[in-house]
Amino acid sequence: TFLPPLLFESSSTLHFSEVRDNLRPIVLLAIPGVILTAVCVAAGLHYATGLGWETAFLFGAIMSATDPVSVLAIFRKIGAPRRLSVILEGESLFNDGTSIVVFRIVLGIIAASTLTNPLTTVVQFVVVVMGAVLLGAAIGYLVSAVISRLNASLVDTPATLVLAYGTTLPP
Predict the structure, then answer these.
(1) Are the beta carbons of 128 and 101 closer than 8 angstroms?
(2) What local confidence, expressed as pLDDT, does residue 169 receive?
(3) Is this structure's pTM higher than 0.90?
(4) Taken in order 122, 66, 11, 17, is the CA torsion positive or negative?
(5) Helices (H), 14-117
(6) Could you tell me which of 116, 98, 114 has the C-alpha nearest to residue 61?
(7) Closest of 171, 91, 158 to residue 131, by C-alpha
(8) Between residues 26 and 126, the one the model is more confident about
(9) How far apart are CA 161 and CA 57, in angstroms?
(10) How far is CA 38 from CA 9, 65, 93, 103, in A?
(11) Among 51-65, 84-98, 138-152, whose mean pLDDT is lowest?
């Protein structure tokens, strides 16, 4: 999959201060927005095609994350405000994680053949998202510090690929 290097590139070009300044709209789009999109896609599929709710929700979770590449290219071409690009890129960094967690929760519910405690689901969601953010920040900081000290261009590309894919391997 190409997702790890795409996310890595996007996150490495965003400034933390810009994300922090726009955190509210980013989080609103990346968490409730993705969940609402998953539900709408699932309902649309279920009612339009007769697909079972389980499969429709799994598909909705997969399709709920957006890819901003073409939209960002249009933004650059028309000279859209930087804040709008930051919100879109920031949301795209977090929406993949939200989509994956929603998918895993729906899959877990299907496998267990019963609804889980909503509080347990919310806690699991928060732990997974916060854990991923903390892990990504820590590993990114460490590898960035090592690469900046090496000052060897031949090491930069392999190190960034290892970082991008390596952070997706821990369970």
Answers:
(1) yes
(2) 67
(3) no
(4) negative
(5) 16-21, 23-30, 32-49, 53-63, 69-78, 82-112
(6) 98
(7) 171
(8) 26
(9) 32
(10) 26, 9, 17, 9
(11) 138-152
φ, ψ for residue 111, nearest 5 deg:
-65, -35
Of 87, 93, 135, the residue nearest 4 (C-alpha): 93
Q: What is the pLDDT of residue 50?
A: 94
Q: 57 Cβ partners below 8 Å, 6+ apart?
A: 38, 39, 42, 106
Interhelix angle 3-13/82-112, rounded to 10 degrees, is: 140
pLDDT for 121: 74
In this predicted structure, what is the pLDDT of residue 106? Answer: 86
Q: Do 6 and 95 contact (CB within 8 A), yes or no?
A: no
| Cα 36–chain centre separation | 15
Rounded to whole angstroms, how far apart are CA atoms 18 and 40?
Answer: 30
User: pLDDT band at 59, cuts 50/70/90?
Assistant: very high
Cα separation of 63 and 73, whole Å? Answer: 21
Q: How many residues does the chain have?
A: 171
Is 55 a residue whose pLDDT tops 90? yes
> How many other CB atoms are there within 10 angstroms of residue 15's CB atom?
9
